[in-house]
Every structure is written in structure tokens, then in C-alpha cells.
């Protein structure tokens, strides 16, 4: 089973994530189940980090939801748990599916909400792909992660994963550059018992769903006249793209 992820459902826009601290009686924070090992996120700290610029974010601000997940999620994992979660995340960036049962074991979840695992994976995915995209080295990455408040031992784990997968991640990013919603299959037919209606079935190779590329299919019903108009417009776009000299335009701009 593939674990679907979402960033938008984890945090509302501009909201400051705050997690409750609930330790079991007679149980240390390290030994307690992850979903119970939560800590408070202090608003002054978040406000301070919003004003900082980070190279792994393209010299921009670190998103609030990433900062929240670092403190309320990743920092509360043991180093072994973080390493296992990071391995699954890195492999998912390269195209592997994420085994939901394995992720549930990391978070000691047998049933119920998977929001915490989804948040952790989405955060790690953002960190690894962003650092790879902006050509960071592990020393710079380590410094910025610690500036965000990630414990040093956790930073070591993430940077070790980064060093192990960075070349492969960059290769995947280059291959998938400008290829979101890539057409995979297409068919056209006339539905039964309809008048002047055409049905298009479109398969998408890597549509972004819940923050991850996924194969999808869509069915579109069009009036016959609209379909002919769409066909003519697509032909015009194709002719324009084929006649356009991108190399010449780039050299002129330089």
C-alpha cells in the first residue's frame, strides 16, 4: 500500500502549529510513543525564524509548516526512527512507494490517524529535494538545519542521508523538470445515447496529488463543436512551439 502525503492538510496557511506535550506516567520522552512525545512550539521562536533567509529554501524564508514539523515531529523521533523514515522518504523521491505498515511501526501506530507520519515524510521530502535543488553541501545544510532548531544528532542523520542520495535526487529532479502532468495515454470515443457529445479519456503520468507525483486518469465530456475548436487551438499551439527558436531568443536576451 502506498502512503499518500499532503502538505496543505497538515497546516492551515499562516497558522502557527502548536503541539500538546503529553508524556506517559513513568515513561521517558525518548521511550514514549512518537504521537505522545510532543513539545510546545514557542511563537517568538517561530517569528524569529520567519525573518531569516535559508539557502536550502532558495535564499528565502523557511515555510511555517516545515518549521512546525521539525519541532513537533522530526525532533521528537529517535535517531534510528528518523533514519528509517528518511530512508523511505529518499527512496520515494526516486520513485519507490512508501510502505504504510513500515511507517506506522516507526510511529508506533497500529490504527487511527496517519497525520504525523505524513507530516514527517512531507517535511523530509521538502528538506532533501530543496537542498539538492539549490546545490547545497552537507556542511551548509547541517548549519541551517541546526539554525532551525533541529537537534545536532538528528541533523547528522539527515545530512548523512543527503550525502547518500543527493546525486540520485538531482538526477530525478533534472529528468522531471518541466514534466509535471505529462500526458501518458489518450483516447476519444462517442458515448452511447448522446447527441453531438465526445468523451475524452486522459491518462496523466505524474500529476501532483497530495504533494507527490502519481498516475491519474480523467474523463472529459465535450460538445462536438467545442472539441473541434479545442483541436484547432492545440494545432496552432503545436505549430508555434515547433517554429519557436528558444536558443536564438536566449542568446538575444543575453
List the helices and strands and how they pair.
Blueprint: H1 43-50, H2 64-72, H3 79-93, H4 100-106, H5 115-133, H6 138-147, H7 152-176, E1 183-189, E2 197-209, E3 212-223, H8 224-243, H9 246-253
Antiparallel strand pairs: 1-2, 2-3
Helix pairs in contact: 2-5, 3-5, 3-7, 5-7, 6-7
Any overview of this molecule?
With 254 residues, the protein is of the alpha+beta class. 48% of the residues lie in helices and 13% in strands. It has helices at residues 43-50, 64-72, 79-93, 100-106, 115-133, 138-147, 152-176, 224-243, 246-253, and strands at residues 183-189, 197-209, 212-223. The protein has a 3-stranded antiparallel sheet.
Short description:
By secondary structure, this protein is an alpha+beta fold.
